C-alpha cells in the first residue's frame, strides 16, 4: 500500500477544484488535486461567466487568458414561442455574460499548477479521521483511501467532487433534490459562420421549456435546452448523444425557430450531454454541516443549483478565492498549515459562503420556474408583475458580487501587487 502525505488535498479537477488549487498556490500552499478521470473533463461544452466570475478570475490571476479570446455580450433577446413576442434586453456596462469553452477555462486554471499537482485516475473511496499522533503534532488525522489502494494523510481536505460528492456525504449533507427538469447542452461548429451577432444572447421560452444560444466566436455556438422530464427520460437521454439531438429537434423544439434547430443539427455529437437538474435546498445549505475539522466542500459539492442564472461555475470560482483567502491568512501567519487552527479558517469560509450560496440556489430556481410556467392569466401576473418587476432585479444583482482578493504572498512570483 502506497502512503502519501500532503498539506492539502482537493478532490475533483473541475472548475472548483482547479480554482481552489490555484488560489492556494498563490498564497504559498501546495495542494494535490485528485481526479478520477484519466484527463481533464470538458463536459458541457461551454458555459457563461458573469462579472462576479471575472472578479474571482482576476484574484486568481487568469482572467486575461479568457478575455483575450472571448468578448462579453452587450444585449439579449427573449422570444416567447407561444406568442411569438421577442423582448429585448440590454445589459449594463460590463454586466453582460461572456460565453467560454469549458475546456479553455479548465486549461487556463490547470496551466497555473505544477505538473505533479493533479493526480489522474484517482478515485476517492473513503475518508476517516485518525486518532491524534502526539509524536507528530504537525499532522492532522485525515486519511483518504483511493481506489488503487493508495492512502493519503492530509491536514486539509476540500471536496470539489460535484453533485454526488463523496466528501459532502461524509460530512452528512443532505442529498440533492430533483427539480423535475432535465437539460441538454452542446457545441456547434459552423465553418461558414453561424450568422448570429456575437455580442447578443438569444433565449427561447415556452411552457415548461427554455433554450438559449451563446456565440463563442463567429463560427462556434454554445447552446442549451431544458424542459420537464422524468428520471426515466433522464436515464435514457444521458446514454445516447444521437437520441439527445433527435429528441430536441423532433420532439421538444419542433416549434422553435429554424435557426435554433439548424444549430442543433450541426452540433458535434461528442459535446452533447443530457443531465437531470438537481439542487440542494437552501435551508440545508444554511443549516447543514459544511465543514468538520479540516474537511470542507466547495462548488457543486456545496451548493448544486439549477443553471437558470448561469451561476454554478461562477459561484465555484468565488468559493475558491474565499477559501484560499482564509487558508492563506492562516498559512501566512504561521508559515505552515497548523491542523489545530484549520477548523477556524474553514468555519470562517463556510460562514462567508452559506447565505450567498443559499441566495443563488433560490434565485436560480425561481428564475427557471418563472420563465417556464404556463400562460394562464395568474401565471402571467406572477411572472411579469411579481417576478420580473420586483424579484428579478434583486436576483440579477448577484452578478455584481465581488468575492475579494487573496492575501499577498511575497514569495509567490506570480502575485501582482
Automatic annotation (TrEMBL):
InterPro entries in UniProt: FAD-bd, FAD/NAD-bd_sf, MOase
Keyword Oxidoreductase: yes
SUPFAM superfamilies reported for this sequence: FAD/NAD(P)-binding domain
Keywords assigned by UniProt, alphabetized: Monooxygenase, Oxidoreductase
Domain of life, per lineage: Eukaryota
Entry's Gene Ontology molecular function annotations: FAD binding; monooxygenase activity
Record-annotated FAD-binding domain positions: 7-358
Family designation: Belongs to the 3-hydroxybenzoate 6-hydroxylase family.
PANTHER family: FAD/NAD(P)-BINDING OXIDOREDUCTASE FAMILY PROTEIN, OS04G0423100 PROTEIN
Designated name of the protein: FAD-binding domain
Protein's organism: Dillenia turbinata
Lineage: Eukaryota, Viridiplantae, Streptophyta, Embryophyta, Tracheophyta
Amino acid at each position: 500500500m502506497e502512503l502519501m502525505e500532503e498539506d492539502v488535498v482537493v478532490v475533483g479537477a473541475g472548475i472548483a477544484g482547479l480554482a481552489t488549487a490555484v488560489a492556494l498556490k498563490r498564497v504559498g500552499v501546495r495542494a494535490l488535486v485528485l481526479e478520477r478521470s484519466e484527463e481533464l473533463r470538458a463536459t458541457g461544452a461551454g458555459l457563461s461567466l458573469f462579472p462576479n466570475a471575472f472578479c474571482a478570475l482576476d484574484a486568481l490571476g487568469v482572467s486575461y487568458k479568457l478575455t483575450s479570446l472571448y468578448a462579453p455580450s452587450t444585449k439579449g433577446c427573449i422570444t416567447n414561442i407561444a406568442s411569438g413576442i421577442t423582448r429585448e434586453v440590454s445589459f449594463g456596462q460590463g454586466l453582460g455574460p461572456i460565453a467560454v469553452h469549458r475546456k479553455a477555462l479548465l486549461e487556463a486554471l490547470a496551466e497555473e499548477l505544477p505538473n505533479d499537482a493533479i493526480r489522474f485516475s484517482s478515485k476517492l473511496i473513503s475518508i476517516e479521521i485518525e486518532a491524534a499522533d502526539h509524536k507528530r503534532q504537525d499532522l492532522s488525522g485525515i486519511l483518504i483511501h483511493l481506489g488503487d489502494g493508495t492512502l493519503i494523510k492530509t491536514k486539509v481536505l476540500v471536496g470539489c467532487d460535484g453533485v454526488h460528492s463523496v466528501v459532502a456525504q461524509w460530512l452528512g449533507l443532505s442529498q440533492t433534490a430533483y427539480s423535475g427538469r432535465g437539460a441538454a447542452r452542446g457545441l456547434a461548429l459552423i465553418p461558414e459562420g453561424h450568422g448570429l451577432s456575437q455580442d447578443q444572447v438569444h433565449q427561447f421560452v415556452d411552457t415548461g421549456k427554455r433554450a438559449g444560444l451563446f456565440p463563442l466566436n463567429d463560427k462556434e455556438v454554445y447552446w442549451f435546452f431544458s424542459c420537464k422530464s422524468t428520471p426515466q427520460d433522464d436515464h435514457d437521454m444521458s446514454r445516447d448523444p444521437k437520441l439527445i439531438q433527435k429528441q430536441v429537434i423532433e420532439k421538444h423544439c419542433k416549434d422553435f425557430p429554424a435557426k435554433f434547430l439548424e444549430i442543433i443539427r450541426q452540433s458535434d455529437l461528442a459535446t452533447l450531454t443530457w443531465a437531470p437538474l438537481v439542487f440542494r435546498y437552501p435551508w440545508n445549505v444554511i443549516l447543514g454541516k459544511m465543514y468538520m475539522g479540516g474537511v470542507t466542500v466547495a462548488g457543486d459539492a456545496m451548493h448544486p443549483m439549477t443553471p437558470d442564472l448561469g451561476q454554478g461555475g461562477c459561484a465555484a470560482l468565488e468559493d475558491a478565492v474565499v477559501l484560499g483567502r482564509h487558508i492563506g491568512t492562516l498559512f501566512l501567519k504561521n508559515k505552515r498549515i497548523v491542523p489545530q487552527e484549520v477548523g477556524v479558517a474553514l468555519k470562517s469560509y463556510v460562514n462567508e459562503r452559506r447565505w450567498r450560496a443559499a441566495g443563488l440556489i433560490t434565485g436560480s430556481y425561481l428564475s427557471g420556474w418563472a420563465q417556464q410556467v404556463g400562460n394562464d392569466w395568474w401565471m402571467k401576473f406572477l411572472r411579469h408583475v411579481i417576478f420580473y418587476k420586483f424579484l428579478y432585479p434583486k436576483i440579477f444583482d448577484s452578478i455584481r458580487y465581488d468575492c475579494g482578493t487573496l492575501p499577498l504572498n511575497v514569495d509567490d512570483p506570480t502575485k501582482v501587487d
